[in-house]
Amino acid sequence: MTDTALAAPLECPLRKVEPQWVDLNGHMNMAYYHLVFDESLDVAFSALGIGWDYTQKGEGSCFTAEVHVCYLDEVKEGDPLRVTYQLLDADEKRIHVFGHMYHAEKGYLAATSEQMCIHVDMKARRASPFPDATQKKIAALAKAHEGLARPAQAGRVIGIKRK
Predict the structure, then answer these.
(1) Per the structure, how many domains does the chain have?
(2) Does 95 fall in a domain?
(3) pLDDT single digits (tens) 94-140
(4) Of 62, 85, 143, 161, which shows the fewest CB atoms inside 10 Å?
């Protein structure tokens, strides 16, 4: 894994809000936040050896088991987006990751995405341990990210607070 892949947090390529992503409210539709986070996570997966090249072999892949997105501020057509990811936790079959989406020029936090991803044996279509080489890369990434602050939105639960 390269030094860039061990960045804390992991920086993903810049994106911009595409015209077709804008809804009737004049801002990026909620579905496209998921798209940007998902495609940005591919950068982390590639760094860990479980990206496109790995999945094309037909032996294993990662599935998202759960995702929680918090929409914190608007982004509009043409706005540049900067996404970072950090590894919160991992075991032999799962990785718990957290993404931050920022307006790349103004710097404000627009959204966050917390995901639990599971490694799947594509022949058996069941959860299975990551390959040994990937487990070593995950451990190295965890070490690189251990000093990062836990995001305020991590572990949130949806509900209405009653007085």
Answers:
(1) 1
(2) yes
(3) 999 999 999 999 999 999 999 999 999 999 999 999 999 999 999 99
(4) 161
